[in-house]
């Protein structure tokens, strides 16, 4: 019965895990290789730049008076679904006041990555665009709702390669799964 405790204590000493076998992250220990100290110790967290690891889930581009808000489909929908998540509804509600003051048509376009059959991706992107349109119409109400158009573009307009060096690129594919809302500033 003592064997698991000894193994845990030994691992704690080797890895420098706080609270295990007396390992203290603030006291240097010659038995601990500082280069492999766990990242969760407060001393090292400030060295991590989250921007290197986190892809923006929303971005905005403005050209003249036209604004395009690009939202990751991974934020709006569960995998392979076209039903908005609660977080998606909140995000759309926060965007709505800007759309009320816009002029002209509000365009909602759905996009997919290159995995799967093009026809399936086209249909999924169209259902997702329609889901965003319906939520915008619900939130905006009145005459603003009648100005919303939705279209699915599938994988036809990627913003990043789906592959790198002939291999799958999950980062690029994630950028391609998106919904864009384009409108004219009022």
Automatic annotation (TrEMBL):
Alphabetical UniProt keywords: Cell outer membrane, Membrane, Signal
Composition bias type Basic and acidic residues, residue spans: 164-180
Localization (cell): Cell outer membrane
Region described as Disordered: spans on this chain: 147-186
Every OmpA-like domain range: 64-186
Main location per the UniProt record: membrane
Signal sequence bounds: 1-23
InterPro entries in the record: Bact_OuterMem_StrucFunc, OMP_bac, OmpA-like, OmpA-like_sf
Domain of life: Bacteria
Pfam families: OmpA (PF00691)
PANTHER family (UniProt xref): LIPOPROTEIN YIAD-RELATED, STATOR ELEMENT OF FLAGELLAR MOTOR COMPLEX
Name of the protein in question: OmpA family protein
Organism ancestry: Bacteria, Bacillati, Actinomycetota, Actinomycetes, Streptosporangiales
